Amino acid sequence: MSRTRSDMAHKPGQGFFMQRAVLLVLGGLISLVVFPAAAEEYNLAVVPQLTPAVTHKNWIPFADKLGRDTGLKIRVQVYRTFDEFETALVNGRAELAYMNPYHQIMARKAQGYIPLVRDGAQRLTGVLVVPSTSPIRSVRELHGKTIGFPDPNAFAASIYLRALLREREKINFTERYFTTHGNVYRHVIVGTVAAGGGANRTLASERPETREALRVLYETPATVSHPLSAHPRVPAAAREAIIKALLAMPATEDGLKLLKTIQLEKPVRADFARDYQSLAQLNIDRYQVNTKLPAP
Q1: Tens-place pLDDT, residues 24-47
Q2: Average pLDDT of the segment spanning 88-116
Q3: Are 227 and 103 in contact (CB under 8 A)?
Q4: Taking CA 255 as the corner, what is the angle to CA 250 and CA 256, rounded to the nearest 5 degrees?
Q5: Positive or negative torsion for Cα 85, 98, 261, 204
């Protein structure tokens, strides 16, 4: 039986509550549109190849653009030393990280970091440089001398290079560490050390006067370049958005300029098994120096 107007009149509160319910629902829908949830902030850790000031200058514009292109909030995290950077990786403190190839082995083992993209334009080599005026013409002439390196765990510029010098070239030398590639190059120029380890990519980014003051004496075999990787807690959809944004970035002049600045000139999809697994077979583990890690 249908209700009459008089029936409704006996329940004066019902219409009020129905109207209130409708208003609450509409209000909730409006709030979803007008006040979207804040984007989660992702830390982007950058391996300290360069000084903190240069790293900030190079990476913040890139992170800002990547954030705009993906809708993610990305904050660049800069470290003064490799120890600080490796501590962050091993403890999983960074959602995103730009790391050297050997760090990718370490970070995957410790936290499961997933390589997203790497540079497909240029492979990575370690370079051993001497002053351009140095009489040294053979790596064997460095036997018994002091050689500078950025950090014990820098891959091409230190671990791989030191392993080759000792295992393949059979020379002994004293090691000194200067934190960054740029510091090594400058100590070589002023004569603090007889030679120094760096990488083809960082040497190419130095000022012309610095490059002219150095000569490459020795170079390692080439390997794949540094990956931009993600911690597995980053959702798959966000990882894919980052990959697609990076692959599209070279299409614009501004995007390509930013990528060149951070040494990702031609981003390609990275794959751990294809690109980095073989590095674990180089048998250079004994040249790694274990970082003194604080508690997570």
Answers
A1: 334 443 333 333 344 578 999 999
A2: 95
A3: no
A4: 50
A5: positive
